[in-house]
Amino acid sequence: MSSFGSLDDPAATFVLAGARIVDPSTDEDAIRDLAVVDGQLVEPATAPADAARFEGRGLVVGAGLCDLHVHLREPGMERAETIESGARAAAHGGFTTVCAMPNTDPPLDEPARVAMVLDRARNRACRVRVIAAATRGREGERITEVGELAGMGIAGVSDDGSVVASARVARGLLAYLAPLGLPLIEHAEDPALSAGSVMRAGETATRLGLAGWPPSAELSMVERDIALAQETGGWVHITHLSTAGGLDAIRRAKQGGIRVTCDVTPHHLALTDAWVAGWRGFAWDEPTGVAADPFGAPLDALLAYDPACRVNPPLASRADALALLAGVADGTIDAIATDHAPHPRERKGVEFGAAAPGMIGLETALSLGLAAVEAGRLQLPRLLEALATRPAKLIGEVRTLQPGSVADLVVFDPAARWRVEASGLASASSNTPLLGMELPGVVRMTVAGGRITYREGLGAGG
Amino acid sequence: MLDVANGHTTRHRSTTGGVVVSWPDSDAPAATGWPHRHLLDVDQLTRDELEGCLDLAVEMRERRLRRETLDLLRGEVVGLAFCEPSTRTRVSFELAAEALGAQVVELPIDVSSVTKGESLVDTLRTLERTGVTTVILRHSMSGAPYLAARSVPVRIVNAGDGSHAHPTQALLDALTLRDALGSLDGRKIAIVGDIGHSRVARSNLHALTSLGATIWLAGPPAWVRGFEAWPGVHVADRLEDALADADAVMTLRIQLEREAGGGVPSLREYTARWGLDADRLAVAQTGAPVLHPGPTNEGVEITADLAASERSLIGTQVVNGVAMRMAVLALLAQ
Predict the structure, then answer these.
(1) A interface toward B at CB cutoff 8 Å?
(2) Which of A52, B58, B127, B254 is a good FRET partner for B75, with 20 to 30 A between their CA atoms?
(3) For the sheet containing B155-161, what is the strand order?
(4) 0.90 cut: is pTM over it?
(5) ipTM field
């Protein structure tokens, strides 16, 4: 039985015996007991004798996951998701913080609207931080009142869904944000190059007769923003990076000391554009069928053109996905962020080109990361650093598993398998092409701010 | 094979690519050899199945010439769902379905709402409940027939989806070429024009390469880019390279609205560099036939003289279209 909690529940007290503790903040990776008393991590020896004891053998404890990019759809699109359902999806996926993007209806482009969302987000199943719109109405012209918004604790500003198309406005924003210590979070897509396109340009798009957007649509904006960050001293964060070229540009910029950070989604790491043609293997798997023979292999009538695979930026080529995985492994990519984008059935049960772009990701992110770990593409500590420690640090939060800190953690069974089914998801939407697939990694407990926000199948232990 | 001479009077069956079609004047049992419920593209067909389709179309053509009554589709209701303007393909399917004894209904589809992606599945579900058993679907968006096939329990015949596929056009082109050339094995076929936006070209690449031909593409770079990697396909930098020693040449309709956006500077320049005329065809095999899926922009992609010459198979394509669609409908109804 699974159960959800919230941030105003009583603080937790328990002992987890013999789990593998992976704490990138101290480079700890050891099997030991972990004790929480009144929401605080303590030395296990000091835990009261009557504290609940759970068996931790075979389980991993990581710091609470932190998602820099989610769409909670409230206000305005509550059929797709609400703050409550999105927060539960987060807790189910092991997240203790999510950053909500401002492209709601109306958009979060003024302090009162940000305050409303923060108010509605209190005492849910995870912390909700707000990313405010970069420009009024997300129209790319007048910047929002960033100074006042900064005082409300926003995590950054973004016109996500669109790039800040005017270089002049983006430059002004970066300069204005620099002393506030907040990032401009950029959806790097040149609209002139991507116009009309519904997937990534390449062999699969050519086969399917779908207009593809070229990688240069991302690269040109990444390079523009790097130049603007260098000139202004501002901090630009490229979200949902999807190309090897963009990654190379960021790697060079970081080496040059420019203030640029970035995240990548789990689906751009694990899935490829061949999914649009109906292939269902991971980027690191040996291509077969239409992935190996993009022009000749027959399309699978049940899986080809699945609108669940329509996402922006589009699913990448295999070479891009493997380069991005290497970018996570070597630390060039700071964070894995889901771009959790719920859509109701009526916006997805349509022709591929008419479907709303986006897929949900909060409840499958850890599992896709663990699949990459199983495949030898990532080390577990690096995965957990990218899902928790580094993104938390970018938004001013701390993640550590050492005694003396507030308990903020995820307990999961990396070897257990689960089948992705709509009925098993806490999200109000189920738009993911992973439906029906079996993935590794089952979250057993999520603890946010010392409160148990999700728990499933943890057994009593000795 | 069918004993054509005895058409009406003897029991017989015809074998097409391992598939047995029972004729109404035969008391042979109904055959079940055709493994496909839908025709979404020709990529799903093996070479034997492709050849079988062509063989059956030849037979349909002959029976139609003899004005035989065929009622292989008696009791079937064929719905024409054309969510994009079309005349010749729609009429061709309508004639084919009626020639086989089906009841044909034209589905009242509001083109403007369907192209917005609002109601395809809903419309098709309604029609299925009213008794339509086969839907002939034309749609402006690539992949729409796949959505239809997995959402609604009717047979779907793709009559053209976006830039993706036009399988019956490719089959009738293959038939036309096979009739003209004897066999496609080892033949060089040139296709000229806007390949990138062409569903006709894509389905022809599948069909013609599967039947053993090698394809040479020519056109403005923006319209041919990306096809070099297609097995059996070459992209020529110059039209002459595509036409040299070609056994047949197919040119495609230039969509005037796609001139914008960097594809080609002007129609005048397109015609100057890629327009087909008799002089340019001199480098091809002697008498190499010319095809065009229609409707032609005469004087743009092909001169009126060439289109009307005896090398032109444009009229044959239209005749073959009805026979080929009869064959497809008959096979799917097995």
Answers:
(1) 201-203, 205-211, 293-299, 301-302, 304-305, 307, 349-355
(2) B58
(3) B103-106, B77-82, B134-139, B155-161
(4) yes
(5) 0.93
